[in-house]
TrEMBL record:
The keyword 4Fe-4S does not apply. The lineage of its organism: Bacteria, Bacillati, Bacillota, Bacilli, Bacillales. This is Putative periplasmic component of ABC-type proline glycine betaine transport system. GO terms for biological process: choline transport; glycine betaine transport. Its main location: membrane. Keywords: Cell membrane, Membrane, Plasmid, Signal, Transport.
Amino acid sequence: MFKKKIMKSLGLVVTLLLAVLLSACGNGGSKSDSSTELGGKEIEIPYKGDNSAARSLVIAEVLKDAGYEVITTPMPASGPMYATTSENANTFNASGIFPSTDKSYLNQYSNLEVYDKKNLIDKAKVSLAVPKYMDDVDSIDDLKDNKDLGKSVDWNITGTDDRNGVMKETNEALQDDDFNDWNLNKSSDEEMLSELQKKYKKQEPIIFTGAKPHWIFEEMDLKMLKDPDKVYGSGDEHINLVFNKNFKDEHPAAYKIATRIADDWNEEDENKLSKRIYVDKEDPQKVAEEYVDGHESKKDKWLEGIQQ
């Protein structure tokens, strides 16, 4: 009788111990399922000197708050930016213009991956552009066999770095016989903008390679030219994150954070940030930090479930 009671008590203890162990294992599994580890902590984000600077620096600040060591690297053109993204598994950029403008870089580098479940910017535009005071120019077709227009700008289209996607598309368009007299001048983003500002101030004619969104369109009355021949694609361009294909496995939490920001990004906020950086000449790092600090609820949502 006494022996039976002892055995019964031991059985109860064993049962309780098993229940505790199973509960602990269950809780551990639940925690793992609902949280994401940082992975490697070193990350690089290359970006161009346009609106992508604002979004890239904001993403970098959020990743730093998550525990990452982030380097943000200004790039002179799309070509070097995509090369950097391709060469380094710790790298992604927030500057991809698709489906047309940057398509050639996806063809060139097979180890790139575009996040397109949701776009950073839904409606982007790439074309030639002019100041609005050029009343008689509204379409790329207006350049064809137009001697008066050609002479007014010395038959020159003011371009940017020839490693940008828009330059590749423009060069291809100028192979058409209707554009035989036209030249595309390559320079840099800074030189192109300087030339535009100089011409605009004097109300002189200028034709340049343009892309929107870009802070310059917020500061000057400019217009993108209609593109009836679809030189620059269908017109339905958008801007996306572009990752090295190994990035997600190396930095699972960073991938989750960056894509969450893409899902939630606000173009109006981006325009305001770009104005502060490029027009008001504020420190870009400080601008990004102040934005993140001033949007705690957004940051909390972006970092939810991240193991720091």
